[in-house]
Amino acid sequence: MSEANERSSGRRSRRGHRVKASFTQLPRQKVVNSFEPMKIISDDQVEAIHNASMDILENIGIMVRLPRAREILKKAGQKVDEDKQIVYFDRHFVMEAMSHAPSEFTLHAPNPECDLAVGGRNLVFSMVASTPNAMDMDGGRRTGNRIDFRNFLKLTQSLNILGTSGGYPVEPVDIHASIRHLECGRDFATLTEKVPYIYSLGRQRNLDGIEMARIMRGITMDEMLTQPSLFTIVNSNSPLMLDQPMLEGIIEMAAHGQVVMLTPFTLAGAMAPVTLAGALAQQNAEALAGMSLAQTVRPGAPVVYGGFTSNVDMKSGAPAFGTPEYAKATIASGQLIRRYNIPFRSSNVNASNAPDAQAAYESEMSLWSVALGGANFVKHAAGWLEGGLSACFEKVIMDVEMIQMMIEMMKPIDTSPESLGLDAMREAGHGGHFFGTQHTQERYETAFYTPILSDWRNFESWVEAGSPDAMTRANTIYKAILAEYEEPAHDPARMEELNEFIDKRIAEGGVKTDF
Question: Is the pTM of this model over 0.90?
Fold first, then answer.
């Protein structure tokens, strides 16, 4: 690293760890899940689902709607029906391809302090993404726009437990679609120092995203091949279909050594069988098809298996999240994914239309299934509302509180002689108290978790303060974070190169759209 870059990195470090005056949060840290992964189905049941997915791949097939992708798979020996655009994947081919996928890797950020360890027992949380609407208690529900988009990015940068934005927290529809990925890439790079994201909505967007990530890292394209610095989500078009933009994303990202998180959107009863076993078998087939393509393009390309199986409300057809079915599917997905020894992506989701008790208990259900299922990367960890149709500022703070509490619960209990506190018991004596003991005085500031949102005052003090409920407190906190936000200190040379690239691509018209 050059002296200039070292100085830049130092400035980033000092700003990134500045103590905020108006709220308390956990420090930036690598989160390791200390819980043993839970088994909700037997090993024999895991094999039954695996074998069913192999049957799907071999005998029902996956529709692959990009000729280039079909040609890659055909050259690799897979049976292709060109008229129907269906590829029949041989199980031995799939398992051989998956054997090359890394079990763990590092996602490199513009600021190395924000690098993300993915896989193993590591646990990464990201901001809500891809919602069409923004929401808070002041402005209500509104169409996505750049102001709200930028404010969510500022929260992403400021909240230590969020490793990345994970996409556009809300879609800024006031930026034309032809250049949206460029202007949003500029905002990612300017307002945060964390790992960026690009949508797989056409080959050129992927290539632009890769180049923007390369510039912000200050490395060569050859170095990018072995230092993944960007990720994308690829959703199969369930049931049993991979469409053209997603396939282009798999091919380009894998070819450049960047991360593909392959996530089927299998809602039981709608886009998948109504039974969880059937939905999981379909999820597994779709995920393995996409990831085996990535490994065919570039063996060893980093991939993540996304489990997102949930159910629908059979009365209305609306997606349901944070349900017992979602929790069971998440934990069972973890068992399946560990069979292939690759990282696991899940989500913190709910179906509530407001940041209320339903939103909290459904999200808590989701978060526990994520932890017990052994997930490594949690999309939509903070701010998801309305089944993914809204990003809510107050819900971000509510989720951060729940996540921080879970992180603290994962930390092992210290049973050293000092922590057992026998001397403190002798000092307090029979019927005494521990407030004044040396043991307490030495530890009281750091002994317990300090909440960002929860209000532990007694009733009288709470009433005297105006009886603020959790929603009101969350509103105050998120605004205070934005008021105290400081833009990261990026390398000026990198920013100049990035802006030149973005301005040039915008002048060229960005990418073609239908409007």
Answer: yes
